[in-house]
Amino acid sequence: MKKRWICLFVENEIGVLARISGLFSGKLYNLDSLTVGVTEDSTVSRMTISLTSDDRTFEQIKKQLGRSVEVIKVVDYTDTPIHMKEILFVKVNHCTDADITELFRISKVYGAAVIDYDGVTVLLECTQTENRNDDLIALLKRKFANRIEIVRGGSVAVSYE
User: Fold this and answer.
1) Which residues on neighbouring strands pair with residue 7, listed in sequence order?
2) FRET partner for 77 with CA separation of 20 to 30 A, picked from 12, 47, 147, 159?
């Protein structure tokens, strides 16, 4: 089993996301992340999908996606040099002054931004790799157990070849 990345260029039409995600659920493939956004061409959307699978299953997924009418192009980013980022929001509740000081220190180390603060609640925003965000979450869970709320957006990726 290996972490995989696929970039799909699809027609920007109603129902395309549902049909693509339905393909995965219908075959019982689990997605780790799926992000969609319009490209420089307003008729085309770009989907970035991450999943964990074996080689055989992954080849089958790519073939099925390639046969979909709405899919213009399938790009396998698995073994390609890519820039990948994921957005993460972490809200820490019931903060003491010491907690707030510690959160500001942590945000500096992890490249996170404190985007909201009301005296007892701190909201961090971090746009890093999935692994770096995992590390931040693990640290915050240890230090602020049962007081954090986590919201993760899907990852986006672009090759730099």
Assistant:
1) 48, 75
2) 12
Q: What is the pLDDT of residues 107-122, one digit of tens each?
A: 999 999 999 999 899 9
Q: Which of 46, 80, 114 is at the close of a domain?
A: 80
Domain interval for residue 51: 2-80
Last residue of a domain, one of 57, 80, 103: 80
Mean pLDDT (whole number) for 102-109: 97
- 99 falls in which pLDDT band (50, 70, 90)? very high
Asked whether the whole model's pTM tops 0.90, one would answer no
CB under 8 A, 24+ apart: contacts of 98-105? 99/144, 102/143
Instruction: Specify which residues 51 forms β-bridges with.
Output: 4, 31
Indicate the burial class of 65 (C-beta count within 10 angstroms; 0-12, 13-18, 19 or more): buried
